[in-house]
Amino acid sequence: MEHRVIDLGGVRITRVVESEGPLLRPAEIFPDSTPEIIQANLDWLVPRFYDAQTDRLIISIQSFLLETEGRRILVDTCVGDCKDRARSDFHQQSWGWLDGLRSAGVSPEQIDIAVSTHLHVDHVGCHTRLEGDRWVPTFPNARYLFTHPEWEYWKNNEGHPALVRSGDYIGDSVWPLFHAGVADLVPMDHEIIPGVRLVPLPGHTPGHVGIAVEGTLKDAFLTADLFHHPLQCCYPHWNTRFCLAPEESRATRQAVMERCANEGTLLMPAHFPAPNAGRLKHASADDPKGHTDHVYCYTFEDE
Predict the structure, then answer these.
(1) Judging by beta carbons within 10 Å of its beta carbon (0-12, 13-18, 19+), is residue 200 exposed, middle or buried?
(2) ∠ CA 276-297-5, rounded to 5°
(3) What gap in Å lies between CA 271 and CA 292, rounded to an integer?
(4) Which residue range forms the structural domain that includes residue 79?
(5) Residue 217 near residue 8, CB atoms below 8 Å
(6) What are residue 14's DSSP bridge partners?
(7) Peptide bond into 35 cis (omega under 30)
(8) Which tens digit of pLDDT belongs to each residue from 8-50?
């Protein structure tokens, strides 16, 4: 498996991809999407970001491995194998994400810290693995970090629609970490190690965070689910159906995207396909697509 690696100078970031392909219909994830809007954007959506045959957006589910000064930090852990899920795309899958991690040169035993940007099904699945009939921590030597407000919200919401829609991923992928004593609760602006810190991005979930990474050559910002698909660069006011506080999510996204466009920040969104990393810039006034709300362009780092 070939891995995309970005060297920031003193920090290496490697994408560890679980799956990448057609997954969600536009209207399934974005309530404001219409067939007419998708049709107006086909010139750049197809084939890289949208599969017209199935009417599904191309979405990557992936982790980010940070290696710096002998420390290995893993950000999010995808959907996971062998887990009962209500969604057929995720149910009892065998993607082999752990093999992908090993092919990047890192074993589960070498992970020092596993960070959850938030507690949705596609970000925590490989936190645990099945040992006999028990779910146990996948990374036996790691501390698992969760933000206080995120855990406070989910631990008391057993019947939450997200769990009904997806299956009880909190029960098989998060609670076992607390039972094992390897979970730590941290504030939303927590510094993980010098040069790697959490950045509050509330709205999508109560404790949703991104991760700012400082290198000696350049910096990067792992944006988690601040935005899910390049369509939101054209339509930054679009929320997903999965945003728990829609107005707060919209305000957070628009403010952070504006700042990142002005500063030229290198971004690594959780669900953008390869090569993933890129920069936002303001779209020109004479944008040929003619969208009055086409605010940003996203330029991938290797283009």
Answers:
(1) middle
(2) 20
(3) 25
(4) 5-300
(5) yes
(6) 5, 65
(7) no
(8) 999 999 999 999 999 999 999 999 999 999 999 999 999 999 9
